[in-house]
Recover the amino acids of this structure.
């Protein structure tokens, strides 16, 4: 014999399952759109610029835990940087160390009043929660990528997409991009294409610091100028090697000017004798 409370609980479970199914559809639709754009881009651009890349999504249609994170958070979707000559396919096991941008997916609940008209319930609250989750996940990117000065992120609420840029002191967000319309899809496609073809620095990377993997563990190559004890900078660039910064910049806001214990030779990477400091470029006041 079932009680009324049993019926309410069963209805709630069915509603939750339906919401999850609809979210998985959004995951898959966003993934398929990004892969379609990447395939078209590789077919059209025959002479890609030097700094170009592909942005590849997570391959599955469900949320996941990053393989290089100790936290329990599950991410909805990510865009991972791939080499231009790599195959256009979803990434099976994404890592924060390779993530260009986190994508947070939300389903906006719609309420029917008369069977024909629909209204959005708490759409603003859903968007705000998506932004908050992006901020939390974004910190992991800074923790694992020591060559990021700023990062990108996306929120997807049903058909509405917003691009977010996480700067050193604020988060900038685009207007709603409605991918259910031709104009909205055009805006998102142009943004994805521009992010693939632009310079590394516009994607938020420091172009003179590179991550490498070796059989032991990863290391970083740093290209910068020598500065003498008197403070004079030598004109020639030199290459140094480091296992990582003295302290990770695992926070969303701040200068992110990390300091790397470094060595002049790769074989001495575990016995650093130098210190390489990331610094912002000097810009005159009022410069564009």
């Amino acid at each position: 014999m079932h009680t009324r409370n049993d019926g309410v609980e069963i209805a709630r479970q069915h509603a939750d399952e339906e919401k999850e199914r609809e979210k998985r559809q959004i995951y898959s639709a966003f993934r398929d759109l990004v892969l379609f754009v990447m395939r078209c881009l590789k077919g059209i651009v025959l002479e890609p610029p030097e700094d170009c890349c592909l942005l590849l999504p997570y391959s599955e249609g469900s949320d996941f835990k990053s393989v290089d994170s100790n936290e329990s958070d599950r991410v909805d979707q990510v865009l991972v940087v791939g080499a231009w000559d790599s195959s256009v396919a979803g990434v099976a096991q994404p890592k924060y160390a390779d993530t260009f941008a986190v994508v947070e997916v939300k389903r906006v609940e719609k309420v029917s009043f008369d069977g024909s008209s629909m209204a959005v319930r708490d759409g603003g609250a859903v968007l705000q929660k998506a932004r908050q989750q992006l901020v939390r996940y974004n910190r992991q990117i800074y923790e694992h990528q020591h060559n990021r000065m700023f990062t990108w992120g996306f929120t997807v609420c049903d058909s509405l997409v917003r691009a977010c840029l996480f700067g050193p002191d604020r988060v900038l967000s685009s207007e709603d991009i409605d991918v259910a319309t031709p104009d909205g899809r055009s805006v998102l496609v142009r943004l994805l294409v521009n992010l693939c073809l632009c310079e590394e620095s516009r994607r938020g990377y420091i172009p003179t610091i590179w991550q490498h993997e070796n059989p032991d563990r990863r290391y970083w190559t740093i290209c910068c100028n020598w500065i003498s004890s008197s403070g004079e900078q030598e004109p020639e660039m030199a290459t140094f090697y480091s296992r990582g910064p003295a302290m990770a910049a695992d926070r969303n806001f701040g200068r992110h000017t990390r300091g790397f214990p470094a060595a002049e030779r790769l074989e001495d990477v575990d016995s650093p004798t130098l210190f390489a400091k990331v610094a912002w470029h000097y810009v005159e006041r009022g410069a564009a």
Observations:
- The mean pLDDT is 81.
